[in-house]
What does this fold into?
Amino acid sequence: MAHQSYKRIRILLTLFLIPWLGYSQTHEVFIRKIFDESLLRGKSYDDLRSLCKDIGPRLSGSSEAEMAVRWSEQKMKSYGFDTVFLQPIMVPHWERGNPETAWITFGNQSIEKITIKALGGSIGTQGLLEGKVVMFNHIDELKKAIRTQVEGRIVFLNQPMNAAEIQTFKAYGACYPIRGNGAIEASKLGAKAVIIRSLGLSEDDHPHTGSMQYDTAVPKIPAAALSTKDANLLAQRLIRNADLMFAMEMDCRTLPDVPSFNVIGELKGRKSPDEFITIGGHLDSWDQGEGAHDDGAGVIHCLEALRILKTLGYTPDHSLRVVFFMNEENGNKGGKTYASWVKDNHEKHIAALESDRGGFTPRGFGCDGNDKTFKKFQSYAPLFESYGLHVWEKGGGGVDIGPLKDQFTDISLFGFIPDSQRYFDFHHAASDVFESVNKRELELGAAAIAAFLYLMDSDLFR
Amino acid sequence: MAHQSYKRIRILLTLFLIPWLGYSQTHEVFIRKIFDESLLRGKSYDDLRSLCKDIGPRLSGSSEAEMAVRWSEQKMKSYGFDTVFLQPIMVPHWERGNPETAWITFGNQSIEKITIKALGGSIGTQGLLEGKVVMFNHIDELKKAIRTQVEGRIVFLNQPMNAAEIQTFKAYGACYPIRGNGAIEASKLGAKAVIIRSLGLSEDDHPHTGSMQYDTAVPKIPAAALSTKDANLLAQRLIRNADLMFAMEMDCRTLPDVPSFNVIGELKGRKSPDEFITIGGHLDSWDQGEGAHDDGAGVIHCLEALRILKTLGYTPDHSLRVVFFMNEENGNKGGKTYASWVKDNHEKHIAALESDRGGFTPRGFGCDGNDKTFKKFQSYAPLFESYGLHVWEKGGGGVDIGPLKDQFTDISLFGFIPDSQRYFDFHHAASDVFESVNKRELELGAAAIAAFLYLMDSDLFR
It folds into this structure.
């Protein structure tokens, strides 16, 4: 090789390759430190255990939710974040009351008990409610039904989640209308109550609760979920005897709104302290189980991500905030209040990330940003390959951080994507307990978020 | 655009692009059918339930292992494979006997119970065995020790698996010598027994058993595993009191070899019936738990893969075999016998795949083949991306199919790679029960293997 061309290659190397190697190696080394901290000295698993076992489920307006607010404030303070504060909000206050009961009877013959749970926000039954059942296998069947089919009956929406859908969140989304709009559609045709097949993929005995809506144009009727096993059972019994009677009693009620809080911790930025990056999940949960995956894992992921960066002595360029949003499940008052509050404060928010898909093995991230941001976002894939993160796709965001988009048109929103296969075994059900979270999977998720937060802060918006 | 160049493009399209699209679309469509069959009408979960609950653990030489052989034969016949047969082998017969007991005492003071399980193949203690303990944090520390440190004592190998290792099988491999060679190394220096920290990543109460070796050059000494929790406890107690006494009793013993079987099912190839592709896992398990992940999931994966292809009416080019190997855990007599038997039968074996890493979400496959095969193997990645399989790496094979490599130098071996994070919570422990396997994760694994088997048969070796 001629000396001249050797020299030219050397110059090219110096100009391009070596700085690039330096850049990439710095990231690689720091990301490895982040994963080591999470896997070897992490706090996420013990913190989640405490949130689940010392407090338990945390429905907005409950005393447990308030206990969780204090717990979170103390926890953030114990990690020495620069600022920790509570942001006041008003939240709905719905209570389940006495446990629900239900059964079916066949004429004078046998009685079978059915496991139900009121959907969140449902009215009670005012004593025992009894009626014949009309079953639909899809909400569109109900919409096409005529009044005489439905009037005075209990509508049973037995629409299953599609098990063939690989992305379980898509299967959930397709089924959501039976829970969200079932009471409205059934009431339009004069039904006296609505019962739905639980939005879950496993066949088990846990009814999955969750939010539902009423419409002022039609009467409110009680709404409840059956476990998938009991939905199958009821469907079978109806084939045998279409005139069977369904009896149910629910004591739930909505009380006046009560004050609550978002919990916020912050590491102050050195270069651009007035520009903010928010990461968070929601502190509230449904009243079933312990809210371990939904969304205990998400808030702990984000808490741990900020703790790790602080513990490793990282000084952020921007101000980094972890927000434990209150009331994602039934009102999103936390997300909405936070977005308008930061706007009123004239803060500039450049990015936000949400973790609200459980504490499973991390698979990647979703990005809702402009083309330049998305391209750079995708360029991070090689840094995460050895950690098993391969998904760098469009999408992202989350219920809590969504309202920020209304305030900042150029904000980039990101969503953490863990493996989704087990999520709907636990979602909004009694099975969503600490024991359903695997230590390593939780720790890997926290590390992935910490590593991505580091890249967002130090590189993505340069 | 000139007509000429348009025509040229059209010719190019016809020659290259359209056949390619056709090829790719055929694969896509059939793979989608495979996943639908597994997720919507799959048998894997119920079959695994039956194997785990109707039979349970299946240690080589046990009556449960023989029951499992009959169960497997019947199951394969019920699926209508062209040929189903049992291949006779001889297997070791080791028994645990009465449950083990162990405790520590501090002089005349307190007693603490310790949970131990004999390692597979260990000799018993012939009544109570008692001694002082010498602890090493790594097997290399033991190798460097001098005789006076060790002689007459119980060696405690407290080497933990490295939690910072993302690939848990690598962490396991690095720790394996304490189990495999601990008794030999300790005996060389005159130890009276060896106890090891369980090869597991979670802190729990389950000792993990597994195979170990003796060397005829040194005396055999009893060998047992402590749960990770009790390993931590013992390490702490030794700091306080290096002279504490450890007492243990184990009733285990090795009996004469007994006859057993590999169970083999076959779909006959149409184009090349004399060329074989084998997929399999091992039917035997340790005697703890139910062998659900190790390797109930693996044999069920492969059974289901063949069932799916048959159910979908697929006619294979090559002869496809599912083999339930016996005795992977403590002798590999099944794998060795199968390899020499097919060679003696003058069968040509072109490929084999093993599933022996549990029933978790599929992440990809490993390939041990020549450059051409590896390149084509990697070209399948886009077909599996929407199913979440992103890993197409070198490596692969497995203990059972490994001996085929000695018989056929140009055979390609493949390994199924599921998510590895939870595997070592269950491996060889009482926690490896049916309930630790998720239905969807199992079904996705079976579908991934069926899809890859289809590609191996129809495309990979063209």
User: Anything to note?
Assistant: The mean pLDDT of chain A is 95. The longest helix of chain A spans residues 3-41. The first strand of chain A starts at residue 83 and ends at 95.
